[in-house]
């Protein structure tokens, strides 16, 4: 209401000022004309020579003020375009009948959303993780390849039986199909009003704590955990996104997010920002190695990766950043590599049995802050006034690394030798 009153007040002032500027030229022109006529009338007694310089001065004044009015009108259109941005329509989705307004019986749930290529290679670890949880405290949703089903023939854990989405799509890395799959997962999970926290996970993610600790950690915070920072690289933002997405609202961050219910609804209900990403956020074509150098035209193309920008930019556009912990709960180690063609790329390091020992896991758990260089911002990991670990999950973990976590009791008791016997 206050926002609407503010806009109306500003618009009223703008209209009043425009009307004033519009009337002034004609008033001045009439005054100057009358002066000119009066001057000519009085001069008839002394001389019959008119005073053209007075008329010219009047017309000159009218022309200057008319040009000023035109400039002002253009500025006003630009001004109004800022206030007619989709921010209000995005945020307005929260005023609809919330899916969470329906009463549910029992404790609030965490919805674990697995975004996988096909099967779940670490299902044995997650199966052990869920074995040590109350069934009423969680739900599972899987987006896999269309037509793939999770049953006794495709997974070792009964927790995943039949948990695949029926409306899954073919996902291509670096394309908008990735964020479309995320939206499908969130939409399915929102159908259960008991789901109050939503955790997006890949097929190589592992939990770093048992279920009880993760459940308490997430339920204790009223905020979403979304890694989000200002993206200063020119090649990511596409100018064609304006005016719907302004550059000062453009954000970047990790794909692996944890949301409260209201923010999940904002993402699923979005009908404004997602189409812009589909049309204008595209990764650049890979370089042609045969040429030895990047094509100059390709260099100018925007290399936009939708899943690294969509949620962050959407929540920024909806003015919801104040409701976020602007960090991810999923730990990733990035290795920068450069090819002979001097094109740099970042790739996550895969943890193996050898480098996933107790000391490394302890180092990850001991991290208590994250530094964002582009904003000179340090994000301290706290729950209210208490310092807490920054990360609850980690990726990318191989099967060997996951088996080591199980054998050392990270997620719960498990006999890894039994798994080795059945997986051969």
Automatic annotation (TrEMBL):
Keyword Glycosyltransferase part of the UniProt annotation: yes
Keywords from the UniProt entry: Glycoprotein, Glycosyltransferase, Membrane, Transferase, Transmembrane, Transmembrane helix
Primary residence: membrane
The keyword Zinc-finger is assigned to this record: no
Record field: transmembrane: 12-33, 54-75
InterPro entries hit by this protein: BC10-like, Glyco_trans_14
Pfam families on file: Branch (PF02485)
Compartment list: Membrane
Coiled coil: none
Membrane topology: Single-pass type II membrane protein
Top-level taxon of the source organism: Eukaryota
Name of the protein described by the UniProt record: Core-2/I-branching beta-1,6-N-acetylglucosaminyltransferase family protein
Organism: Hevea brasiliensis (Para rubber tree)
